[in-house]
Amino acid sequence: MAYYGTAVNGVGNNSTKDPTNGGWANGVSANTPWDIESGGLINPWISFWVQPGYNGAAGINIVKLWIRFDDLMNTTWFNIYAGKTSVDAPFSNQRNVYIGTNTPWTMYDYTPGTPEVVTNGGVSNAGYSFIGAGSAYFDGDAFQMANDATAIRYFGYHINGGASCATQSTFSFDPCETRVNVNFLPDSSLYGDNTALSGPGNQGSLTPGSKVNQIGSNGFNFFMHVTQSFGGWGRTNGERIGFFSMVGEGAALPSSGGGGTNPTTTYSREGVDLMVNPIPNGGLNIFGAWEIVNDPTGMITANPTLLGANVGAATSGLEYMVWLVQADWQPTFGGFFSQSGTNSNMISLIYNQLNMMQQPTFVGAPNLPGNYNNVLAFTLSDRYWLWGSDRADVSLFAQYQYMINYGVAGTLNNFVSASGLNSGGTLGTISNKAFFGNVEANNFSVGIDFAY
Fold first, then answer.
1. How far apart are CA 153 and CA 15, in angstroms?
2. Is the pTM of this model over 0.70?
3. Are 72 and 79 in contact (CB under 8 A)?
4. Domain spanning 2-451: which CATH class is it, in words?
5. Which of 30, 190, 415, 417 is 20 to 30 Å from the Cα of 85, by its Cα?
6. Rounded to whole angstroms, how far apart are CA atoms 444 and 452?
7. Domain boundaries, the chain
8. What is the pLDDT of residues 164-186, one digit of tens each?
């Protein structure tokens, strides 16, 4: 449960209709009000997990539902997950303790064409709503590492030795664990939605923000992650380096102009990640990741509301790179209660940056500026474990995030209605410098977590 607040500049609020200053919004809500976690062993090598939960809008949803087969053929190199689960991301979103911004990592929830200040969640959680349509174009790449999806996951690992995984030095070359994950995500979901997959996505003939359901298409999505740790597992001691890659293919977006010059879609993303622990055992952990994404014309369709009724197919794809650095410091403070698990505090600082390297182009529409929907964000978080035991945990948290989203002011300010379309059917203001102004948001959240 949390109280949220946001101050937005450079864009109008639906309540004020003032495009010069968005003002302040606030409210009380919870990202995931509750869920029930239940798992166990069918036998020593087969485990399962069932996790229903309230999704805040449409009632009960299946958060997770999977079965796992370990050490098949008596080797740690062959193990299988099957069901609704997360991909093996560089840093698991299931361990995300940052409230109020959906995820604190732009890499995990970015949707090309749609302003990140909206997708991020900090503004919307506070109850802020924008005037404009939002998306200049829609991208079928809906893959987000923040979500779970129907998947079959292979993973294999080799542990070099117990001593190599228990090194307490600040830096080591002693290899600990080698791990390989390959996730297959079919375009068809068993759970009635496709929001975590790359094949389905947004397209212009639907309401902005809605998803295309491509059940029946023969597309595929593969996500791979390979890691090697040294002197520990990398999370609280030692170091870990990794490489991850996403490759997918699916049908072109089924809309007027969708598919562009390439009716089939093969898209990719590649990245590297690194964990180090200058102060072992959770004292100070530093994590970083870098990723580059390529989406072809078949993934992209223009929003005629913003780019004009006569806009045509995409003539080029898009490319962007995104990176993050996170530092977690865990000093020990005196607690209010003497139960086990208390007296612990974690302070986190997160830096995010995303740069568009190539904007898509469309027939009959002027080019978007190179920095449209670029992102820079800082997050500062403090989480204090007020009370903990074998049965329950209570923690307090406070979080502040500053974000600047470049070039999106016009799409969120409803400049289209203010100026109208010219006789050629294209936006008269699209070349106006003010249309591509920047939007800034200062997001706050304070609250309490309870687990039983």
1. 46
2. yes
3. yes
4. mainly beta
5. 30
6. 26
7. 2-451
8. 888 877 788 899 999 999 998 87
